[in-house]
TrEMBL record:
The lineage of its organism: Eukaryota, Viridiplantae, Streptophyta, Embryophyta, Tracheophyta. It comes from Zea mays (Maize). Keywords: Antiport, Ion transport, Membrane, Signal, Transmembrane, Transmembrane helix, Transport. Its main location: membrane. The chain crosses the membrane at residues 25-45, 96-118, 183-202, 208-227, 239-257, 269-288. This is Cation/H+ exchanger transmembrane domain-containing protein. GO terms for molecular function: potassium:proton antiporter activity.
Length: 336
């Protein structure tokens, strides 16, 4: 929440100083504060970093951002002036109550209905796995649809469905069934982003867009790292979390659509933010590939502390390898 408020405050002040509208600056801050749950989780899982400290902090931040989307939607009419402050506060309070109620109901279902449903699907799909796959996908899509209809985010509902399944004994089996079609959904997600891009505008303003993407990545990494560091985490963890959250999330497209419909932003600013968001998502794989080099550089410059456990493991491996070589040499000499 501190990160979201910092972006809103800084962008609002910057817009005012540059002669722009403060409300547009605050909206840009809202947009920048969002990161991509779908993209970041995919790369954290591929690199087996989901259980690492920086992975846990990153996932926690992403979940909170998804929870805050409903509140941010309620904030947009206040910024555009289409609703009064009292009405906006009432709308945000309503969203918060709906969120708490929704999560409470899901918590109860995860202990009662979900285990029974999954066991039923297991018994019905004893001969084939396709039925269980369809049932698992339908289960996640159902809760994503419910959260969307309640004014919450799609991602929050789908994430909550995954958490509900993870509390059962069939979590690993369900993950094995879903994994083959996970890449299909990821491809559809990226394809839908590509369909939103205005290629003509992108080509004519490629220099501005590239500069905006570099600025967004740099500023987001710095601010998120500062916030994480403020809560007592190490320099390494803070920087890794900052780099992981340096893109603009896919929910920015929904926020942009909503802001455009209520005339909060118009014209070229809408296209610029749309292109910047899409390009920042495209650069996320490059950022994750840079993480090992950044960590190595940080250790060399003594910004990060050396992981003694890893060093100990490497030393043990070296001792084992050396011992094997000595035994082989001795054995070879005896044989000769």
């Amino acid at each position: 929440m501190l990160q979201i408020m910092l972006f809103m405050f800084l962008c609002g002040i910057l817009a005012t100083l540059c002669g722009g509208k403060t409300k547009e600056g605050v909206f840009v801050g809202v947009l920048l504060s969002m990161s991509s749950t779908a993209v970041v989780l995919k790369f954290l899982m591929e690199r087996n970093s989901i259980n690492a400290l920086h992975g846990q902090v990153t996932v926690g931040t992403l979940i909170l951002q998804d929870c805050a989307v409903g509140l941010l939607f309620a904030l947009l009419p206040i910024l555009s002036g289409t609703s009064g402050l009292l009405h906006g506060v009432a709308s945000m309070t309503k969203s918060l109550v709906v969120l708490i109620t929704f999560l409470t109901i899901l918590s109860i279902l995860s202990r009662t209905g979900v285990p029974w449903f999954l066991k039923l699907m297991i018994s019905l799909s004893s001969q084939t796995n396709e039925l269980y796959q369809l049932a698992a996908v339908a289960f996640c899509l159902l809760f994503a649809w419910c959260s969307d209809k309640l004014g919450l985010s799609l991602e929050l509902g789908s994430f909550a469905a995954g958490v509900m399944i993870s509390t059962t004994d069939l979590a690993q089996h369900t993950l094995e069934q879903i994994e083959p079609i996970r890449n299909l959904f990821a491809a559809l997600f990226l394809a839908s982003i590509g369909m939103l891009i205005n290629v003509h505008f992108l080509w004519n303003h490629v220099d501005i867009l590239l500069a905006a993407v570099i600025l967004v990545i740099t500023v987001k990494t710095f601010i998120v790292a500062i916030v994480v560091k403020g809560f007592g985490y190490s320099n390494k963890t803070s920087l890794l979390v900052g780099m992981s959250l340096a893109q603009i999330g896919e929910f920015a497209f929904v926020l942009l659509s909503r802001a455009s419909s209520i005339h909060l932003i118009e014209g070229k600013l809408y296209l610029l933010l749309l292109g910047t968001t899409a390009l920042s998502l495209v650069t996320t794989p490059l950022l994750f590939k840079m993480i090992p080099a950044v960590v190595h550089l940080g250790v060399l410059l003594r910004w990060f502390s050396v992981d003694t456990n890893q060093l100990g493991l490497k030393n043990d491996v070296l001792r084992i390898d050396s011992g094997k070589r000595i035994n082989l040499i001795v054995q070879g000499s005896h044989d000769s």
